[in-house]
Amino acid sequence: MADTISPPAPAASRRRSTRRVSDTVFLGLSATSAVSIMVILAGVAIFLIIQGLPAITANWADNKDLSSIQNPAQVPWTSFWEYVGPLLWGSVFSALIAMVLGAPVAIGIALFISHYAPRRIAGALGYIVDLLAAVPSIVFGLWGIAVMRPFLLPLSDFLNQYFGWIPFFAGPVSSTGSTMLAGGVVLAVMILPIVTSITREIFLQTPRLNEEAALALGATRWEMIRLAVLPYARSGMISATLLGMGRALGETMAIALIMSPSVLYSLLILTDGYNSQTIAANIALNFPVATEIQRSALIGTGLMLFVISFAVNMLARFIIGAQGPKTGSKRRRKEGKGA
């Protein structure tokens, strides 16, 4: 008897058709989401350019509203770039202080949670760190005013007395604590959750075989972390640190409450009245009382902050992309020499 091939069952055909429809719908939703992100980003950039361009291109020397904006010394600004320069410096400087103080602590907390702490303690500590991300920035600002400013006064006196020859610690020490140091410490605490959570997840993704191989060869736990965990998580740590820097660059209320605002270039972190104001705090303090042309100038500074944040993210992508191939090529060269 000849073999006969029966046609596919209608139910199976319907399932395949339904699967194709669901795949098409999911693809459409994913593509729409990706395009919408680009559209929103472009819309924000276009809004900032249109609203800030009148002040960027204006003649500040002939416009009293622009030349006197947020300028207690009443020294007239002659151009937009002369005005935005100190604000850019203040934003980047405060974010760098936060990175120097906060990133090592965050990475240490992540290592303790992922490789040292018992499971129960690690779970509770991870929950507490994640809970910090839900605290509003205004609360951190009030905490900085009531706790950190008086707490840092003895440290400021010590740094000025014994390390005053370093430019950062020179100058008259503030008696109120409204300094760049206090703002940087509060920013460092605020970036702890994002840096810690990302690096903790990256540390936990380290291949278990790599860790066990290092321990089997006689390495201590710290040697295992240094040889197996940290090289694997290097790019992730850089990415997490730069994301924390992005958070610090855009912080507003905590800096506005803690620091004494001044639009100037300064390296001093222990004095008040000589603190370089940040762009975000400057916008928050001046936007409600600004005239139309002054608001255009403030929006223009927001455009500069947008560009800086975008550049930080691009730098993170570049570093991560550059590290991967170099690491792989170095490993292949070592393997070739060993062979």
TrEMBL record:
This is Phosphate transport system permease protein. Belongs to the binding-protein-dependent transport system permease family. CysTW subfamily. Keywords: Cell membrane, Membrane, Phosphate transport, Transmembrane, Transmembrane helix, Transport. NCBIfam families: phosphate_pstC. It is a multi-pass membrane protein. The chain crosses the membrane at residues 24-50, 87-113, 125-146, 166-195, 252-270, 297-320. Residues 88-316 form the ABC transmembrane type-1 domain. Part of the binding-protein-dependent transport system for phosphate; probably responsible for the translocation of the substrate across the membrane.
